Amino acid sequence: MTAPREHFSSRLGFILAAAGSAVGIGNLVGFPVNAAKNGGGAFLLVYAIFVFLICLPVMMAEMAIGRKTQKEPVGAYKALNNGGNGWNIAGLLGVLTPFMIAVFYMVLTVWIFGYIVITLGGGLDYLAGPVAFGEFINSPWIFAAMIIVAAIVYFILVAGVKEGIEKAAKTLMPTLFVMLVLMVIFVLTRENAMAGLRFFIIPDFDKITPSVINGALSQAFFSLSLGMGILITYGSYISNKTDIVGSAKLVAITDTAVAFTAGLMILPAVFSFNPDVNPQELSDSSVSLIFTFLPKIFLALQTSLGYVAASGIAAFFFILVFFAAITSLVSIIEVPVSYLVTEKCHSRKKALRILMMTAGVLTLFASVSFGMVSFFTEFTSYAGGTRSFFDVVYDVFYDTILPLNGLLLCLFVSYRWKKHNLSEELATGNDGYKGSLSEKYINFSLSTFIPVILLGIFLNTVAVKFF
Ligand code: PHE
């Protein structure tokens, strides 16, 4: 006998947990940099259109099949396919993808944790130096940090949906909002902050090229945690009273608002703390931005505030990012946990132990991909370059499979499960849904242009990344 499926205790708990998943490193650093470099307000506009017109229907469809079946991706696809096997691959990808993305995300979270400790220990000047990042990620300390991060995730998840995931989100998310707002107020009241604000917001429509458009959509898709089975799984933890349409809108608004607010913090900070900075130095990747560029920016504060205050503010920032990362990490590991519990009938504890062990080993491989072990550093090669194990996980699962999962979901929901069933599910808990404009738009978009766009992104990524 398996235990009855746990549920979030309230709609708010569900929304906070889903928002906790969505708000992550992508919002806090990925979005501001992308926006600043790619047209400012113009990028924001394109991004917001994508969030609401393309991502939101996909998000609702994920939540709907989760709630309908009360299962994670493997179980959900199987249940709605009436015993057929044709869609099993979509379900399997829906569990394998989050597992592999968890490996890559875990590495980043471990580094952030390390940065908090080093900053609090007085090492901000070291982190701002040229060798710190390379040295730190290849030092044995990351193994200690890995154990601590894994333990935090384990303790949240082992406590279950209500007592673990929901409680963590209810504590961490409001704390994160308050920290973010405090940081924005602090930054915007510094001298020269307005230059950064202008750099972030003033629209430049000339920069909106096809590749920027593609990037904006991928960013939005990732930021909302789509294609990772997370919202299917979280959807399976809500009751029929919860209005999916309204909840999904709130999650999308929260996620976008946090991304925008993060821009109000990062860009003005860059300009104001270190006025000599050349904005072109803003790196393309959020990884080098957080780990090599921002420590320099924070260190520059010491001239006006002193070293201790500069370190305190840097630590505050890294803690903020860490909270965002933990709630995302928890959500992504919950998918394979739920799979092992529902489909393989393991206890939650045992499922977590199996996962922590396997994901731990893979995270270890990914962590030593930066020079420590040459087998993983020079793991393979494609598109004319050597790729590490970390690169492969990132390129295959994060960049390529995500849009594919989205595509499969749209096709499954529209043509296998059928639109009228989706409507039925979305109308549960939302009396006005049937016959509304939302219903027409969701059914139409999911069965026509959204899959076409996702297919385009998938093919384009394969062509660009691997050939
Ligand atoms: N949405 C998260 C972000 O923006 C991405 C993410 C979610 C990654 C869940 C892993 C797990 O950073």
Automatic annotation (TrEMBL):
The chain crosses the membrane at residues 12-31, 43-65, 86-118, 138-159, 171-189, 220-238, 250-271, 305-333, 354-376, 396-415, 444-467. It comes from the Bacteria. It is a multi-pass membrane protein. Pfam families: SNF (PF00209). It is found in: Membrane. Its main location: membrane. One of its GO terms (cellular component) is membrane. Keywords: Membrane, Transmembrane, Transmembrane helix, Transport. This is Sodium-dependent transporter. It comes from Thalassotalea algicola. The lineage of its organism: Bacteria, Pseudomonadati, Pseudomonadota, Gammaproteobacteria, Alteromonadales.
